[in-house]
Specification:
The protein has about 180 residues and is an alpha/beta fold. The protein contains six helices and twelve strands. Helix 2 runs parallel beside helix 4.
Length: about 180
């Protein structure tokens, strides 16, 4: 259902909703207090967080993006100052930092912006099935705020969860900030 909804969401509607959601995130205390922010490089149907990245650059915040070790099932945050120059297309078409970009230690992150297929109003998240974000977010050194970003149609009363799923600190859409 959510995958079909994503395919039917027009590029114009996606751009407009992305802009509103980014403005909402930028207006939160999570963003205001963050000096180092881990974002994601959006896939075609995901919320475009490029306005958050631009605001980070404008205000001197460090931006990291996850580099994925598909075989090991892990993610490593890497500093990315120039998306056009420092990103490569990895497995499954996911953009990620080049291998020579500096590693950012997880304990140095202040805000982690998390994509998802769907989100529950109880701050749960439905990922794409690989468990990469849940493993990363459950790491002992993570002290950052964990905030899901998605479109309002991705927000459900609840989503199916398991014991290994991490509850987020909040969710931001173009219409809501859920704490």
């Amino acid at each position: 259902m959510l995958r079909e909804e994503a395919k039917g969401f027009s590029a114009e509607a996606r751009a407009q909703a992305s802009e509103l959601a980014c403005a909402r995130l930028i207006g939160t205390p999570w963003f205001a207090s963050a000096r180092t922010v881990m974002l994601y490089a959006p896939m075609e149907t995901e919320l475009d967080i490029s306005l958050v990245a631009k605001e980070c650059r404008r205000t001197g915040r460090m931006v990291a993006l996850p580099a994925v070790d598909w075989g090991g099932g892990t993610m490593t945050p890497r500093r990315v100052d120039d998306w056009a120059r420092l990103l490569v297309v990895g497995k499954h078409g996911v953009q990620e930092p080049r291998g020579d970009t500096p590693i950012v230690e997880p304990e140095d992150l202040d805000l982690i912006v998390v994509p998802g297929l769907g989100f529950g109003r109880d701050r749960t998240r439905l990922g794409r099935g690989g468990g990469f974000y849940d493993r990363f977010l459950s790491g002992a050194s993570i002290r950052a705020a964990k905030v899901g970003m998605g479109f309002s149609w991705q927000l459900l009363a609840s989503v199916p969860t398991t014991d290994s799923d991490v509850t987020l600190d909040g969710i931001v859409t173009e219409r809501d900030v859920i704490v």
